[in-house]
Amino acid sequence: MTSYYNGFPQSDCDKEISMINLDELEERAKEVMPEGAYYYIASGSENEWTWRNNTTAFNHFQIVPRALTDMDNPSLETEFMGLKLKTPVMIAPIACHGIAHKDAEVATQKGAQAAGALFSSSTYANKSVEEIAKAAPGAPRFFQLYLSKDWDFNEMVLTAVKKAGYQGIFLTIDALVSGFREANLRTKFAYPVPLDFFTRYQGGKGEGQTVAQMYASSAQKIGPADVQRIKEISGLPVFVKGISCAEDAYLAIGAGADGVYVTNHGGREVDSGPATIDVLPEIAKAVNHRVPLIFDSGVRRGSHVFKALALGADLVGIGRPYLYGLALGGAKGVQSVIEQLNKELLIDMQLTGCKTVADIKHAKLTHFDYTADNLRSNTDPSRIVPYPVTAENQLQEADTDTATGASQR
Ligand SMILES: Cc1cc2nc3c(=O)[nH]c(=O)nc-3n(C[C@H](O)[C@H](O)[C@H](O)COP(=O)(O)O)c2cc1C
Questions:
Q1: Pocket of ligand 1, candidates 39, 118, 211, 265: which has the most ligand atoms within 8 Å of its Cβ, to mutate?
Q2: Is the pTM value of this prediction over 0.85?
Q3: Residue 326, φ and ψ in degrees, nearest 5
Q4: pLDDT for the residue numbered 407
Q5: What range defines the domain where residue 156 resides?
Q6: Residue 265 annotated to the active site
Q7: Per-residue pLDDT at 339
Q8: Pocket of ligand 1 (CB under 6 A)
Q9: Which residue stretches of the chain have pLDDT < 50?
Q10: For residue 408, what pLDDT is reported?
Q11: Does 228 reside within a domain?
């Protein structure tokens, strides 16, 4: 089902999505989204090397199976900043959910709440922070701040966020300008649905703006003093989002940050930058448990969540996959995406003897820099080669096992 905003088609479904894995949603989402919107989500910057390697580099670490662990029924429940969560999987902040669904962030928040996951909304959200909060009373949520050059705007935003009951801020510092995203240029992408904070402050701005124009209004000059100022205005804990090296983790904590968020913006900013999983160990060592640590970029599997937790993350964010879930299934689709990762993660926990999320932090990984591929399985629809049809290889009704195709003679 589809509804339209100013001629822009928006999914309006609310249904569970059945899937074998998250990767397949990337293809299926094309069927319910216009090309420009799809590639705004799906693409990275320049040659998309970092975007690809964010996922591939998980292969540099291997999970060591454990035997005779004498445990069953692992649990995903975890606590983060005093919030009780049903999963360590988190909804990373993404702009303009209205390109995926008519209910935009409201639907995403409902899906996250149903899965018991931490939700976060972007400064570039379509729905207001009040609408989002009202849609899911009591649900844990953070707000992502793109600092503006205009401190009146920043104060308006932070005051509204605090009043709406958000529990923390992610201050994004890795996107001071937009990465060079060729897909947006090719499709001439501009935000098709109004962004609430820009409508409120500037009367209609946001809708119809390109990504580069939006970033131009945000601050390029952000330093340690800004962290303090945001803490003071909001009265909320502030995580610095966009840390890719130990030096910046030290800087952030020194500036008073309440947490560190390791990400490269899903490979949308500096292309040829390192995959986040490769820099996580040095950052975790620098942070040394002084503050909580969030990780994202390239996470598509339960085993990726497992590895990030084992290497020092407290929560693991996902971006693009839940937006595809939103487009394909609304709130229930978002929930299905989180639950798919949970399902895979629970299998890894059982097979490594990890009863709790805290146990995963002590799980044994090995490290070997395979340059190996990260191909999908041979039965994945994107890889499948049509099976040849010959007179000799067709099943016949009576004397074959129709489930396996095996001859019973
Ligand atoms: C379409 C899109 C929009 C995004 N918008 C924002 C944003 O508004 N603020 C922000 O801090 N990060 C934003 N991000 C980055 C995500 O928070 C997250 O770091 C990234 O998506 C994780 O990588 P993944 O998509 O591979 O999981 C965006 C990412 C995508 C894909």
A1: 265
A2: yes
A3: -65, -45
A4: 45
A5: 13-367
A6: yes
A7: 98
A8: 40-41, 54, 92-95, 122, 124, 144, 172, 241, 263, 265-266, 268, 296-299, 318-320
A9: 407-409
A10: 45
A11: yes
